Amino acid sequence: MNFDADVIIIRAGGAVAAKELGELGVKVLVLESGPWYGVT
Q1: What is the C-alpha separation between 34 and 19, in angstroms, rounded?
Q2: Closest-CA residue to 17 (of 32, 4, 26, 37)
Q3: Which of 19, 32, 36, 39 is most exposed, with the fewest beta carbons within 10 Å of its own?
């Protein structure tokens, strides 16, 4: 996998920050532990 992000947030505690940054046009990658529920 290859990701191009301006900011990496580790853990969902940063979900609000990720939302705010995303709305400003910043590319955000959020990393969280647990099962994968993403798009295949």
Answers
A1: 21
A2: 26
A3: 39
Alpha helices in 1-40 (DSSP H): 15-23
Q: Answer whether residue 34 shows pLDDT above 80.
A: no
In a domain, 6, yes or no: yes
- What pLDDT is attached to residue 25? 97
Q: Give residue 8's domain range.
A: 1-34
Let me know the angle formed at the C-alpha of 27 by 25 and 30, rounded to the nearest 5 degrees: 130
pLDDT on residue 32: 82
How far CA 12 is from CA of 6, 33, in Å, comes to 17, 9
Token code pair at residue 37: 């529920």
| 27 part of a folded domain | yes
